[in-house]
Amino acid sequence: MVELKQVSVVYGEQHALRRVSLSVEKGEFVFLVGATGAGKSTLFKLLYGELRPTEGEVWVLGQPMHRIKPRELPYLRRRMGIVPQDYPLLPRKTVWENIAYGLRAIGYNESAVRQRVAQVLALVGLNEQARQMPNQLSGGEAQRAAIARAIANNPPLLIADEPTANLDPDTSWEIIELLMRINLRGATVIVSTHNRAIVDRACQRVVAMDRGQILSDVPRGGYPIELDRLHATVML
Amino acid sequence: MIDRLRFVLMETWESLTRNATMQAAAISTACIALILLGGAGMALYKLDATAQSLPGQFEANVFLKMSATREQALQLKAQLEAMPEIERVTLTPREVAWEQEKQKLAEDVNLADLPNPLPDKLTVRVRDPALLPAVAERIAQSPLVEEVIDSRKELQTVMELSRLVRWIGLGAGGLLLMASLILIYNTVRLTIASRQREVRVMALLGATLRSIRLPFVLEGMTQGVAGGALAATLVLIAAAFISDYFVRQWPFLRDMPPGLPPYIVIVGLPALGALMGGLCAWWATRRHVHI
After folding, report:
1. Nearest CA of chain A to the CA of B155: how many Å?
2. Residue of B nearest to A148 (CA)
3. How many helices (H) and strands (E) does chain B have?
4. Who among B196, B201, B207 is closest to A74 (CB)?
């Protein structure tokens, strides 16, 4: 489903990723954890083609992202659900319009749009908020709306960048539960976070990153102790 | 297909209504540039048509001396017809010319009892207007010729005016056209910046580059069409007023050939505006919209 082989990304003289190799199989739920600057966002950008590796290979859904042609990229992205950390929702559109916008942008007709929006709103539990503007939503509701938009096209791969950032613990857990439900329906889910509590509670595969490298990769576990030790060292 | 079109048009409309001040600036600059270009185009067309219609461009009137006999006049006619530069020579006998003159002035003055003051006249038509000065000069040297009159001076004035209009129109219009191109480019660039979220969301959801760029290109085209339509309206109104004023001042201008047909201005300026707006917007999206 996703495979990185000896991938490095270099900005000037700065290594954002250094010889990273990672493989995610179909149906997996993976937490990508690490402090700010660890390389999580860079890795995500490689997955959805916003960035190309300086060296190495990136394979997503069987396609070589490291040498994909720009005209092929949109069609591949339609098979991914992406929840970006920035710009989660369009502020001038209602929840319903936000979700419909994405479907219209990729060519869905109006009857299909109405049908799919209704389905995903029910899935994320936002039926009552459908006509609300983003500024009328709570943080958790906004994040659920962003997830709804990302999965509206029923993609086999869902990538969520810090979906629990700035959310309280209960709401964060609701979001992770929703992502796990989507995973149970068959989608492969990769979530970046530095929220220790939800990682410990979810007990899924955890890939820890630090300074552009993979520090550990645990099939089922909690927030890695290595990261805590590193943080402690940095604090000292 | 209709849903797709509706989506693109909605996006374009949202862009157009989001930044009203910039839109107004882009449309008005495009309008001014197109007014200058359109006005210059119309004036040039009229001047060219006038220059083409001036008989003096090809013809000279040769007035013979009163002492010249009809036989001498016919001899000179035959000599001139033999010249390779000359296409045709027509003799207007003095009595015919006098009859015509009397008829023309009959309402104002009675010339019936007056003696004929007019000489015989040869109308010489050359094959190429450029040859007219040299031919006229050679004819003037004949001892039978009193005077040679052609319309070189009038023609020259029209040509100079035409050159002036061309330079002013192309120079000022060109500069303003450049300004409006930059302004439309900048408006679209600002619109792209203000719609960065939508662009990113569309890109991440898998919209193609073409479908993301299309609303911006349509926005640029709309600005150009609006500027062009405004310019066409103003140019046609101004042309009607100016033409009316000149005809009232100099009634002989009533016989001038007609100007550019209005439908060409009505269609041409908005089309030119759409082309330049579309090109600018396309260039702006190529530089600033990426997936």
Report:
1. 60
2. B205
3. 9, 4
4. B207
Position A44, amino acid: F
Contacts of A82 in chain B (CB under 8 A): 204-205
| Packing angle, helices B209-249 and B262-288, rounded to 10 | 150
- Please compute Rg for chain A using Cα positions: 18
Please list, in sequence order, all residues whose beta carbon lies within 8 angstroms of the beta carbon of residue B77, skipping any fewer than 6 positions away: B89, B91, B122
Across the interface, of A71, A74, A113, the residue whose CB is closest to B206 is: A74
pLDDT band at A23 (very low <50, low <70, confident <90, very high): very high
CATH 3.30.70.3040: does it fit domain B57-150? yes
Domain locations in chain A as residue ranges: 88-154
ipTM confidence score: 0.82
State the span(s) of chain B assigned CATH 3.30.70.3040.
57-150
Average pLDDT, chain B: 83
Q: Which of A159-168, A186-195, B35-44 has the lowest mean pLDDT?
A: B35-44
Distance from CA of B4 to the nearest CA of A (A): 6
- Over residues B262-285, the pLDDT tens digits come to 888 899 999 999 998 899 889 999
